[in-house]
Amino acid sequence: MAKGVVKQRKSRRCLWCIVAIVILGGIAGGTFYVVKKKILDKNSSSTSSLEDKYSDALKIAMQFFDVQKSGKLVDDKIPWRGNSGLKDGSEAKLDLSMGMYDAGDNIKFGFPMAFTATVLSWAILEYGEHMEHINQREPAENSLSWITDFLLNAHPSQNVLYIQVGDPKEDHKCWEKPEKMTTKRPLKLVNSSKPGSDVAAETAAALASASLVFKKTDSTYSSTLLKHAKQLFTFADKYKGSYTKSHPEVATYYNSTGYGDELLWAASWLYHATGDTTYLRYVTEENADKYAKVDGPTWFSWDNKLAGAQVLLSRLSFFGDKGAKGNSGIDDYKKSADELMCALLPDSPSATASRTKSGLIWITKWDSLQHPVGSAFLAVLYSDYMRASDNEILSCGDDSFEPSDLRKFAQSQADYVLGDNPMDISYLVGYGGKYPEFVHHRGASIPVDATTGCSEGFKWLSSKKPNPNVAIGALVGGPFKNESFIDSRNNSMQTEPTTYNSAVLVGLLSSLVNTSSPVKSLNEN
């Protein structure tokens, strides 16, 4: 086994077709939801508190990580899932069996997987007490380490990072359960001659943030995570280049539009993890001019982390971080974060027009819920920073807003996801009285006892029956701009869930479970 390889640790908090053309009114095996009589959410009642609603939703959302796990499953809570990908990484003599599948297929993409870990870490660091109150911190940390174990093993030497397991082109020719995969599992990597600053920096951010999560409970593991994070950041910064330039074929699936945001994001997390002002200077001096100067707000997602970095760095300003004292560059990030918040607030004079009639932030028809959920998570973080630091006023032009306004916006986006929308449908599978039943997900669509090869499984893709297995906790892609939704397995644009969107949703729901103040330093956890 290669040097630095992490074996699956037993009992370490163990727990729990590209879219077809959409034709309104008739997709085989699906349902087109139109505005009809409201269906009441069985998880809510007139006497239920908002916190209870978000707690129930969080417990459901957390389970999707178990649905997506690869490897030898321990204490498996999903009855229709089993061991898979056990030989992943063997061609490089690495154990890459763990980690998570990105969406409804059987590929492990390192770029979005690392983002999943970073956001999940952020959620635990800020709202771990909220999670613990409803017994969800342990499953969150277990899911996080399931990814970080994979990322550690994917980094066998300082300037080498394995970024993909499986061939998506070949995988998409098949419709089969991960437990019964018949396709080959080739690997892709980035190194000094084939750089990938974006994926390496995102992985550095994931490991640095996770090192803070495990600092008190497993100091040895935390130190290992931080060591790899530092090496990966150095690698990303020294050998600059986009991983989709090094591997153009991956651009079809997870194209990177630039690596500057990941470098700033990673350095921000490394400063929080280490207190080393070298990382602070990295984000506020020359690199700020290179990578942080943009016109207007940006949208937080697996591809663009700049808005996340702005909010994370504004934390230093709100809480008077000693290392950031007198650093005008940090103030610039906070000003940008202020502008983003003003764009999100619907009554702000600079409010973005990119919304549905019902008020959902809407940027793209593909995976449309990623941006409103991400925006809401950043908004509630900012609200909590303002409230906890006694900064009660956000100025947007001539108007002023309070932390409660940002929280109200965040709740509106969460409530839309949970069923308060024109379709009266919960986009969180398993929550409410009505949610998608034809989720674009191989494992969920194929009966447990079915025997399928590569192509034979497509009969389950086109089946007119609902999925035999519930992809519990899945956040599907979401509605179109006109707020319609077509529940069809062939409609991957709207019905395919992703692990990284689930991480952001978990962060959002965790924030709404309670209203306790955040810690002043993430290093206090």
TrEMBL record:
Entry's EC annotation: 3.2.1.4
The UniProt record lists the keyword Transmembrane: yes
One GO BP annotation of this record: cellulose catabolic process
Sequence ranges assigned to domain Glycoside hydrolase family in this UniProt record: 54-509
Catalyzed chemical reaction(s): Endohydrolysis of (1->4)-beta-D-glucosidic linkages in cellulose, lichenin and cereal beta-D-glucans
UniProt xrefs under InterPro entries: 6-hairpin_glycosidase_sf, 6hp_glycosidase-like_sf, Glyco_hydro_9, Glyco_hydro_9_His_AS
TM annotation in the entry: 14-35
One family name in Pfam for this protein: Glyco_hydro_9
UniProt superkingdom: Eukaryota
Entry annotation: catalytic residues: 440
Alphabetical UniProt keywords: Carbohydrate metabolism, Cellulose degradation, Glycosidase, Hydrolase, Membrane, Polysaccharide degradation, Transmembrane, Transmembrane helix
GO MF term (any one): cellulase activity
UniProt similarity note: Belongs to the glycosyl hydrolase 9 (cellulase E) family.
PANTHER family per the UniProt record, alphabetical: ENDO-1,4-BETA-GLUCANASE (PTHR22298)
Identification of the protein by name: Endoglucanase
